[in-house]
Amino acid sequence: MIYEIKTYGDSALRGENKNIEEVDDSIKEILDSMVETMRNINGVGLAAPQVGINLKMFVMEAEEGIIRKIINPEFIQYSEIQIDHEEGCLSVPGIYKKVKRPESLKVRYLNENGESIEEELGESWARVFQHESDHLEGILFVDKIAPVAKRLVSKKLLSMKKETLKKLGK
Question: How far apart are CA 118 and CA 31, in angstroms?
């Protein structure tokens, strides 16, 4: 099933997201649909709040053909090296700006089988993991861009928010 992506201004993107207590068939179905949705729009990651589901889980495919389904992510350790890299977001279409993030991470999460995974991620995997984890905390990449960059996109964000609220009938 292809989900509709929530866009900037939708309250689902800023809502509180709950930990998943049990990885059951319904969670697996949601994750599979999220992968289908992400691939349908050529994304590299998709968090549950982006499709209106306020649970702590996301999917990512930072390298073609390798999918990770992440449930209840935790950060164990961050690299001291920070890298500026351009990011975009399916929920903030058409805006791409540089965001500074740790180059690598050590993380822990549950996979789609409910197994606890602990691993080190670098490069694209680390960036996508951080970007999607931010969604689970109600944070969008535009919240992390430099003030000058934020001013440059502020009109576009305001317009996007108005359009989203109009679509929601608010």
Answer: 20
Give residue 63's domain range: 11-167
> Has residue 15 been placed in a domain?
yes
Has 132 been annotated as catalytic?
A: yes
Which of 21, 87, 132, 137 is flagged as catalytic? 132
The pLDDT value recorded for residue 64 is: 83
pLDDT in tens, 120-162: 999 899 999 999 999 999 999 999 999 999 999 999 999 999 9
CATH of the domain at 104: 3.90.45.10
* 58 assigned to some structural domain: yes
Query: Residue 152: in which H helix or E strand, if any?
Result: helix 147-167
pTM: 0.95
- Evaluate whether 168 touches 10 at the Cβ level (below 8 Å): yes
Query: How many domains, in total, are found in the chain?
Result: 1
Query: What are 88-105's pLDDT values in tens digits?
Result: 999 999 999 999 999 999
- By percentage, how much of the chain surpasses pLDDT 90? 93
